From TrEMBL:
It comes from the Bacteria. SMART domains: HTH_XRE. This is Transcriptional regulator with XRE-family HTH domain. Residues 35-81 form the HTH cro/C1-type domain. PROSITE patterns: HTH_CROC1. Coiled coil: none annotated. Signal peptide: none annotated. GO terms for molecular function: DNA binding.
Amino acid sequence: MPDASTLGTVLRERRERTRPEQVGVVGHGRRRTGGLRREELAELAGVSTDHLKRMEQGRRHPSPGVLNALARALRVSRAEYEHLCALAGYAPVEGLVPRQLSDGARRLVDRLASTPVCVLDATWTVVGWNRAWEALACGVPSLHPREGNIPWRVFVGQGGQVLRSPGDDARFRRLLVAELHAASTRYPADEDLASLTADLQRASAVFAQLWASTPTAGQHDSRMLLRHEDLGRIALDCDTVHIPDGDLRAVVFTADPGSTEATSLTEFLLEARSAQAGQ
């Protein structure tokens, strides 16, 4: 039977025990306590601060999608996740990693037609994208079964078009390994996920070393330097939007309005759209 009061207490206590750097939150000023602020967890989980406050007070019951988003944001262990599910009256997710676009994710991709957008599943595999993203050639699935997986491209493949400093690259690799660890906790029965992590350990000594060390995820880059055959080097803002329904995340590339990058990107995408229409 659901126990909203106890669930709220457990969520609040878990939030207060979670250090910001453990979940990739950095540089948010002086703190009275060492734990996550409510608004920080709300942003990570993709819910409003008021909604989270009501949940912690036992006045609002989370949906399964919201509960999974909170568990993901807090990076709870499997045992903690099962305890949260029991308090909420839900069965823990034991099935496969959701690999289909939810309705909300599909709307996001379709309606931002002029903005490069892709959607990643819990394994950081591209499961949806629009033509603007494809035009930038940022990475979409091909004949190779692993080509659409970001960790595989980073650790085993050519690494894609993103240029990173050695420090940024090391932080991004730790983030990817931490995300795969978290996904393995949420989906222990997913054979494809288990196969991916096993293949990565065999193919990359760096991945194997990081996997054994169970790193804490850092913050995802908010600014990307891309190398493109037509645009040359172009710096773009990279924002990640968590989509609780389906355990997905959308990656969106934009440029500052009025900037040289914005003009170059807009002109390039218009030309690409015209070329696609003429095919």
